[in-house]
Amino acid sequence: xxxxxDATQPIMTFAVTGGSTVKVPLFTEMTAGVTGASxxxxxxxxxxxxxxxxxxxxxxxxxxxxxxxxxxxxxxQGGDFPFDAITAENTPPATGGETAxxxxxxxxxxxxxxLTTVANITFEPVGVAGECTNLDIxxxxxxxxxxxxxxxxxxxxxxxxxxxxxxxxxxxVAAQDVDNVLLPTRDSKARGVR
Length: 194
Fold this sequence. Notes:
By secondary structure, the protein is mainly beta. It has a single domain, classed as Immunoglobulin-like (Sandwich), CATH 2.60.40.680. The protein is built from 1 helix and 12 strands; from the N terminus they run E-E-E-E-E-E-E-E-E-E-E-E-H. The strands form 2 sheets. Strands 1, 3, 5, 6, 9 and 11 form a 6-stranded mixed beta sheet that branches. It has a 6-stranded mixed beta sheet with strand order 2-12-10-4-8-7, with no helix packed on it. The radius of gyration is 27 Å and the shape is elongated. The chain starts with 19 loop residues before the first strand and ends with a helix. Residues about 1-15 and about 170-175 have low confidence and may be disordered.
């Protein structure tokens, strides 16, 4: 016996593995109050064991008082190959909806890199500057190419609306207006001339 360990018993060691992580950006800003403003939120899978990602099903929840999914084109779009398409939108997101749920699988057992974007979702602002929404990503399923579950965790993000930056412009009159000599110039202001 050595320091309380019986040498006749097998010693086991356990590896600490975090599994794969499914995440959306931790913090994203989008301009509020601008027609056509939108932001694309990538859904990323990190550290897939043996680069063996066969398929997934995810759900993303957000606050509809702050943002809505874009209504033009495909709402949930594919990411990197071989996940460059979406198999099905299980809960089709719609304007006013608060959840998007979708899935995709690959049939070719193509290895994926350590960081793979599997989907992209486009949001548009409906709230006002200063409001934020959590982007709550939930892993419904994450499997390898043999349809075996992959140990996983998720990391949620936040999307905040910001105001349009205004640009301050000074000294716009740099020369005398030849059509109206009563308008001041920068030099006449400095001398106190009106």
